[in-house]
Amino acid sequence: MKFCAFLRGVNVKGTSMKMADVCKVFTEAEVGDVSSVLASGNIIFSSDKSESELKTILEKAMSEYFNYEAFLFIKNQTEIENFWKNNPFEKNENFHIYTFVCNDGFEKILMNEFENSNKAENEEAKILNNIFYWQVPKGNTLDSTFGKILGKKSMKDQFTSRNLNTFEKVIKKMT
């Protein structure tokens, strides 16, 4: 089965790694057909193991190799296609659309945080099929109240986010 591992906190805030090295770690952890998409930690691979087994194996391998606390979110090809297909927002060049890969149920916590934050004009969030989507005006991502909340250390093992366009690139590379 094909999977993509979405790594949390890669190439930000002092945690830098080359995707070639990450792919090497995955290959040594005995998964197949390993490749990366962008430098933000999106690793496509094949395996017969379950998502939970893969998460344990790959987080341990990444933590040991790079000497940091690795957090990975593993999704199969069908799940990734759902992230792309279920987007509730219309494409608009003035906005970024982010999709959150998170632990089960965490999308509700994200929505609660969003609802209690100050919002820019037309900043929106929606949950569709247990997937959290966030639309934010370009240039406001890191300055928005919600964007700052996302950096809380208490949330680092609960989710990672990607621009919706990343999912399109991952799907294209998987097929």
Would you write up a description of this structure?
It is a single chain. With 175 residues, the chain is α+β, with helices and mostly antiparallel strands. Helices cover 35% and strands 26% of the residues. The chain has 6 helices and 8 strands, in the order βαββαβαβαββαβα. The protein has helices at 19-28, 51-66, 77-85, 106-115, 145-149, 164-174, and strands at 2-7, 32-36, 42-46, 72-76, 95-102, 124-128, 131-137, 159-163. The protein has a 4-stranded antiparallel β-sheet, with helices on both faces. The protein has a 4-stranded antiparallel β-sheet with strand order 6-7-5-8. A hairpin with a 5-residue loop joins strand 2 and strand 3. Helix 3 crosses helix 6. The longest helix has 16 residues, at 51-66. It is globular, with a radius of gyration of 16 Å.
Number of helices: 6
* Shape type: globular
Spatial order of strands in the largest sheet: 2-3-1-4
Distance between the terminal alpha carbons, to the nearest Å?
A: 12 Å
Radius of gyration: 16 Å
SSE sequence, one letter per element: EHEEHEHEHEEHEH
Largest sheet descriptor: 4 strands, antiparallel
Class per helix and strand makeup: alpha+beta
| Overall residue-averaged pLDDT value | 91
What is the beta-strand fraction?
25-35%
Parts with pLDDT < 50 across at least 5 consecutive residues: none
Number of strands: 8
Helix content: 25-40%
